[in-house]
Design brief:
395 residues; two-stranded antiparallel ribbon; globular; Isoprenoid_synthase_dom_sf; Squalene/phytoene synthase
Length: 395
């Protein structure tokens, strides 16, 4: 492991800066499922029907696979290690994540962006109501929900949690659609919890699996993934737009460069955003700021590994789950206790936790580049790292 730490949670600091710029196949040609609100037991069951053929699902699956292959290759690889029953759900979720992440760069004004976000909120609600829009992500999500209903023998309590999490995910993406900076590290972690960790909660619920310890692990890993995603975006978002004369005929709408690192860290190390936009990686203090943010992501991965070790040893995870009791995170006694049931839950949900491997892979390559986010090289070891993690059951 390349992370050399001066203490338990600290990465090796960057060297002094030198000059220069650095299938779920449906059982028939159409499907329907029933959704009952668990919060209102007296409410009659609403049977929702939508005609989504096998051919529709196959086309939607192909579309989402192609989107991930070209736009989120890490997720494309992780998908192959997930249980077959949740692969369609994972495809739909990550394709939706990719669509929403691209919105700030593909819309010409905030009003259009808000309309697109509202479309996705309505699409999720309509999909749960049995009337998915005729677009790939919604149809594939609908097929995944139909499969979940079949496995649970109906629309169980996990449906309400999944619906809530998806709406929270879209709302958080909308809140940060203008690429506003994070005031501090806590705000960045809250963003990561409401996006990347939330997608992991949905994937676990689609198994279906409800376990406080597994959700707790997913929270730490999701936060690490969200922080790593912000670091990955620095070379793209902080780079100035090409000159008008060099723009392609169908180029993206013009935008101003942005730096999304927490403002308190930038102020503490003396980074000026204007310097980053003009000088790129040569901006004074930038590598130190990246180092501090990357250290927090690495902290979450270290914590997840220690928790995993403790749970398997039959011990307490080491600290309380801060989101216990929140919407979607209420657990029966058997969902949060140790013992064989918890170990079985961990075994069932482990492959969802493999999201930690791409995050660790990026952080390792970032450290190799001396925390210069502009010089991180692509890696070829990720498929092997995922296979090894699955085989050894270690993250």
């Amino acid at each position: 492991m390349l992370f050399a730490r001066n203490s338990r949670h600290i990465l090796r600091r960057p060297r002094p800066q030198t000059s220069g710029l650095l299938s779920l196949s449906l059982p028939s040609s159409s499907t329907s499922f029933s959704i009952t609100s668990p919060s209102s037991p007296s409410t009659p069951t609403q049977t929702c029907r939508s005609f989504v053929s096998d051919a529709d699902v196959d086309k939607a699956r192909t579309y989402c696979v192609n989107q991930l292959r070209s736009g989120d290759y890490d997720a494309h690889l992780v998908r192959h290690f997930l249980p077959r029953g949740v692969r369609d759900a994972y495809l739909a979720l990550r394709a939706l994540n990719l669509e929403l992440a691209r919105l700030p760069e593909t819309v010409s004004n905030p009003t259009i962006g808000a309309m697109r976000m509202q479309f996705w909120k309505d699409a999720v609600n309509n999909t749960f109501d049995g009337q998915p829009p005729r677009e790939p992500v919604s149809m594939l999500l609908y097929a995944a929900l139909a499969g979940l209903a079949a496995r649970e023998g109906g629309a169980g309590s996990s449906f309400s949690s999944i619906r809530f999490w998806l709406q929270r995910f879209i709302s958080t993406r909308q809140q940060y659609m203008d690429n506003r900076p994070f005031a501090n590290m806590a705000a960045l972690e809250e963003y990561a919890e409401s996006t990347y960790a939330t997608l992991m909660y949905v994937t676990l619920a689609m198994l279906p699996l409800r376990s406080m310890h597994v959700d707790h692990l997913a929270s730490h890993i999701g936060k690490a993934c969200g922080i790593a995603a912000i670091l990955r975006g620095i070379p793209v978002l902080a780079s100035p737009q090409p000159p008008p004369g060099g723009a392609a005929p169908h180029s993206l709408p013009p935008r101003n460069p942005v730096l999304l690192l927490p403002l308190d860290i930038l102020a503490d190390v003396g980074v000026r955003e204007e310097d980053v936009y003009r000088q790129g990686p040569a901006a004074p203090g930038l590598s130190e700021a990246v180092f501090r943010v990357a250290t927090r992501a690495n902290d979450h991965l270290i914590t997840a590994r220690e928790m995993l070790k403790n749970i398997r040893a039959g011990q307490d995870p080491g600290h309380d789950y801060e989101h216990e009791g929140e919407t979607g995170h209420t657990y029966a006694a058997e969902d949060g206790e140790g013992g064989r049931d918890e170990l079985r839950a961990l075994q069932r949900g482990f492959n969802v936790l493999l999201e930690a491997i791409p995050a660790q892979d990026y952080l390792t390559r970032l450290e190799t580049a001396d925390f210069d986010a502009f010089r991180v090289k692509s890696g070829w070891k990720l498929p092997w790292s995922l296979y090894r993690a699955q085989s050894t059951q270690k993250i």
